[in-house]
Amino acid sequence: xxxxxxxxxxxxxxINRKVKNVKFRGVDVKYETECFxxxxxxxxxxxxxxxxTIQKNISDAYxxxxxxxxxxxxxxxxxxxxxxxxxxxxxxxxxxxxxKRWEGSQIQTKSMDKALREALKGKASGNICTGNRDFSLxxxxxxxxHFETALNRKVLKEKDKGLYAAKYVWYADMIAYRDxxxxxxxxxxxxxxxxxxxxxxxxxxxxxKHADSSCVDPLTAEEIKIVRKIAMAFPDNxxxxxxxxxxxxxxxxxAGALIxxxxxxxxxxx
Length: 270
Ligand SMILES: [Zn+2]
Hints:
By secondary structure, this protein is of the alpha+beta class. Helix content is 46%, strand content 13%. The protein has eleven helices and six strands. Strand 1 (14-24) and strand 2 (27-37) form a beta hairpin. Helix 6 crosses helix 9 and helix 7 packs across helix 9 (221-233). The radius of gyration is 22 Å and the shape is globular. Zinc ion (ZN) is lined by residues 6, 8-9, 11, 38, 40-41, 43.
């Protein structure tokens, strides 16, 4: 661990981590910082590495907030696809330096963001039943919390079997897959007589209610946008129920058949 002494009074400085707010390009962003602080005079100083991490964190927080892929997410998606920076650069017809900069703190343009998403879309051979994501009870729980905020009401009540909640989650997962190549919760869905439902929901419903969502990835800006869009389109339980029953991808299935994520392209109600 590096040590710094205060430039003013030569006291040994301590590491200080905190969450800060800043206005960046006109947007309020929250980011994590780590720097040194003098216990006597409160002077703050950052090493070169700390300063560059702060830059990255501000840039990432900004990008998440305005709906661009953050550097962290670009790197994560690229690694999931087992793609090197060079391979991604080749696929996008840009230099490797651009990829390195975007995975760092440089902010890509809207059009380059689109190209990045296109190049980082899940492989066609990815899992069509989970929408290219690992199944996560915590993320279903988190998704429902966001729906409750967006709808301003409870979605999953204590004795609830998830009849309506599942339809909100289904639409969110399907649209995330359709628009970004990746579901939100990794759930598998079945066509049941009462509509699309999380597969094996009877075994899962209590776990979903009590799942710990504190240790899962928070919803991204795009995912939250999807939740809001669905909440706006279907404000009432009856709306989401009726819409899902008009979907051909549900109507055409035999009872109990799985609804693959590839069906997301054929949704008609949203
Ligand atoms: Zn000092």
